[in-house]
Amino acid sequence: MKIFQINSVCGIRSTGRIVADIYAELKTAGHDCKIAYGRLDAKNVAENDVYKIGSKRGVYFDGLMTRLSGRAGAYSRKATKKLIDYIKNYGPDIIHLHNIHGYYINIFLLFDFLKTFHGKVVWTFHDCWPFTGHCAYFERSGCEKWKTHCKECPSVKEYPKSLFFDCSSKQYAEKKAAFCGLKDLTLITPSNWLNNLVKQSFLNEYNVITINNGINTADFRHVESADYRYKLPGKKILLGVAVPFTERKGFSDFIKLSRMLNDDYVLVLVGLDERQKSSLPANIVGLPRTNKTDVLAELYSRAECFLNLTYEDNFPTTNIESLCCGTPVITYDTGGSAEVIIKSGGYGAIIPKGDLNGVCCAISKLQDKKEDIENILKHSKVKPMVNQILTHISNTQISVIKYCQENGIAVEAYSPLAHGEILKNKTIKEIADRLNVSIAQLSIRYTLELGLISLPKATSVEHLKDNLDVNFKISSGDMKKLIELDKIENYGDYSFFPVFSGKLKE
What we know:
- This protein is an alpha/beta fold.
- The chain has three domains: 2-210, Glycogen Phosphorylase B (Rossmann fold, 3-Layer(aba) Sandwich); 227-367, 3-Layer(aba) Sandwich (Rossmann fold), CATH 3.40.50; 383-501, TIM Barrel (Alpha-Beta Barrel).
- It has 19 helices and 16 strands.
- It has helices at 13-28, 56-69, 77-90, 107-114, 168-179, 192-198, 227-230, 251-258, 274-277, 293-302, 317-324, 337-340, 356-379, 398-406, 426-435, 439-449, 461-468, 476-483, 498-501; strands at 2-7, 32-37, 50-52, 94-97, 120-124, 185-189, 207-210, 236-241, 265-270, 284-287, 305-308, 329-332, 348-351, 386-390, 410-414, 453-455.
- The strands form three sheets. The protein has a seven-stranded parallel β-sheet with strand order 3-2-1-4-5-6-7, sandwiched between helices.
- Helix 14 links the parallel strand 14 and strand 15 (410-414).
- Helix 4 runs parallel beside helix 5 (168-179) and helix 15 (426-435) crosses helix 16 (439-449).
């Protein structure tokens, strides 16, 4: 099968990495695939499999005309015609659109062609731009005109910025006419939040599917400290990552937060420009943007927690990257960002937008789980060798486990079967059945995959033999599903035990 993807960038930044990862998976599965992109240089894709749309000069011209006229996606005609000729010569079975805004393509010429295309068209939305008259997000403005007909746009000075004219009403009508009426178009949203919005828009004629963004877990995993690269201070690091680090991404809130933190902490912000770096408080380390996944993985791994103080977002991959590196996430309850976060088990917290006191409390709670271990390591002459922690599918304290492992303390998983309550979970059963193992075997193997010592209970010789037969692997995708399961809140007859009731501090 031939698959042709189109996006503003390729192999860099969040959407570019998503496109490149999809390409890699398709190639591994034996498909023929290519990527067309419009901006910067392509990374992590074979040279013969990429097509550059237009030129750097063309992007600048498109951006200038967009700002002068207020109409986005109406330029780059010559580059788009050449792209269409390339697509026709390639003959794809599927065309997969991503971000078609970004000053590199003529959306009207493109969709005129797509309405004659005989293959399938898939379009992944990475923001709200496809169904508004101007903006990519409207949460901060509270505008809901997109539900009926955009006009008098409150965000006309924001991306894609217009210097003089408000063309939101005209653009809304143009987009509706261009984007509607395709015979075989499927829309994909990375978050349930965006899925719900699309169903309220003029694009509600199409089938909308939620498929969460994914990342390459070979790149994003817990690794050694990044201190040697940036000479980070020997304090507890609270990390923020955004490109660019705008007000929408909570830059001002990070400045305010810096004044509320005690001397134990330092904020490290990745994605700052030189102007922003020049005026930072003493307890904020400003780093430039980077597309190097190894650097990002090191920074995530070094941090105590990742802070995503975003005011507008879809399904940020930064949250996933941090979690895969073993670092909990604290995020505002924004868009689909909250969908990424596990509210329990040490993975972080979801805070109302702008509630910096709530952010501080969440940071303190994360640290509380480590303070006993820290005190022992600081004041004891003999370092503990083993720490026994309640650990099972749906209740995994990653931050505590990570801290113990970093300090050479083995972790024993107490009650990996959750006193039998885990056996009732349908999702766990489905995965176990697919792997042709019992739920008990899957639960034990889960703790072993985390590098823990498993302590299951057995009531018979048969159970003991079954528990020992765990010589199989759980895929990274299944591990992610198991980690993200909702926490068991009721342990049945065993809920009175302090360790299950939460009365016993772990």
